[in-house]
Design brief:
Elements (H helix, E strand, L loop, with lengths): L4 H8 L4 H5 L7 H9 L2 E8 L2 E8 L6 E4 L2 E6 L7 H8 L2 E7 L6 E11 L2 H6 L9 E13 L2 H6 L16 H8 L6 H14 L3
Antiparallel strand pairs: 1-2, 1-5, 3-4, 4-7, 5-6, 6-7
Length: about 200
């Protein structure tokens, strides 16, 4: 097992200068373009109960650029576990990974976050008359674009490689197994499309 930084660097070598220069402490014009084009961001946080990585998605640009060092992410109705928000209350560190369909490069943003419930800010994120439940305001500390190798290796954007939903357990099946069989999986799956539609915002 690797146990020291020296062992790690001996195995992999040192990063090239251009890999180091990709990391900056703000969102330049190119990095802002990636945020605006992204409909999906993975939000990672850390708290007293452990780590969390949760997806947030909406129309491209739903993560608002306040300025080159500040982002705002609306939080919508969910399952009320509040894992991300609980973590941010005790540890403001946050990591974001912006994903753009069909694009190999991703954007990583690290920073510190606060949870805002300022009425005007919540209302500014309203959809169908429904304001955001809260807004995660991120002070950017580092931004870095990842190359496309992960998506090239995975062939993730190739529609010929997309997995048929029926080959995996349904959401209802997950719940049924996790509840020792005492769950109506068929009804849950049948009603899910309308339920999701009604509770998006």
């Amino acid at each position: 097992m690797l146990t020291t930084l020296d062992q790690l660097e001996t195995l992999y070598g040192l990063p090239q200068e251009r890999a180091l220069r990709k990391e900056i402490a703000f969102l330049n014009e190119d990095y802002q373009a990636m945020v605006k084009a992204s409909p999906l961001v993975i939000v990672s946080s850390s708290g007293a109960d452990g780590l969390d990585g949760s997806p947030r998605g909406d129309v491209p640009g739903f993560v608002r650029i306040i300025d080159e060092r500040t982002l705002a992410i609306p939080d919508r109705p969910g399952n009320n576990r509040l894992d991300t928000l609980r973590n941010l209350l005790v540890d403001p560190r946050i990591a974001l990974l912006f994903i753009i369909p069909g694009i190999g490069e991703t954007l990583r943003v690290n920073g510190r976050a606060q949870i805002s419930i300022e009425p005007e800010l919540l209302q500014s994120f309203a959809v169908n008359g429904k304001p955001a439940r809260s807004v995660i305001v991120v002070q950017v500390e580092a931004a870095y674009f990842h190359c496309s190798k992960a998506f090239v290796r995975s062939d993730c954007w190739n529609p010929d490689k997309h997995v048929e939903r029926s080959t995996l357990p349904s959401a209802g099946a997950f719940h049924k197994r996790l509840n020792d069989g005492q769950f109506d999986a068929e009804a849950y799956d049948r009603e899910m499309p309308e339920r999701v539609k009604a509770t998006l915002y």
